[in-house]
């Protein structure tokens, strides 16, 4: 949030807790869902901070390696995340 208020051009954050619990327990187990709710709460705090930011930001949330049960980045867009970033 400090980076948002300092008007950094790009901000990157990771939320490892869910990833660790989901790998151990499974992506829809109660303990993983509790941690996911906590991550969601943190993302909501970031979204709220964006309202007071001195510049506009776009909040982008990515699953880094398929914890979601939906289509992959490549399947949805026909290109990899690395291709998009290049």
Please report the number of helical segments: 5
Q: Strand fraction band?
A: under 5%
Q: What does the radius of gyration come to? A: 15 Å
Mean pLDDT: 83
Would you report the number of β strands?
Answer: 0
The description of the largest β-sheet is: none
Distance between the termini: 27 Å
Total domain count: 1
Outline:
With 86 residues, the chain is mostly helical.
Structural write-up:
- By secondary structure, this protein is mainly alpha-helical.
- It has helices at residues 2-5, 16-25, 30-51, 73-77, 81-85.
- α2 packs antiparallel against α3 (30-51).
- The longest helix is centred in the middle third of the chain and has 22 residues, at 30-51.
Question: Which helices and strands, and how do they pair?
Answer:
Blueprint: H1 2-5, H2 16-25, H3 30-51, H4 73-77, H5 81-85
Helix pairs in contact: 2-3
What attributes characterize this protein structure?
86 residues; mainly alpha; 5 helices; flat
């Amino acid at each position: 949030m400090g980076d948002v208020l300092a008007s950094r051009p790009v901000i990157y954050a990771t939320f490892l807790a869910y990833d660790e619990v989901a790998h151990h327990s499974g992506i829809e187990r109660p303990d993983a869902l509790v941690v996911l709710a906590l991550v969601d709460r943190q993302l909501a705090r970031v979204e709220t901070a964006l309202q007071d930011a001195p510049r506009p930001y776009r909040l982008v949330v990515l699953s880094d390696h398929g914890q979601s049960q939906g289509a992959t980045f490549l399947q949805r867009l026909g290109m990899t995340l690395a291709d998009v970033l290049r």
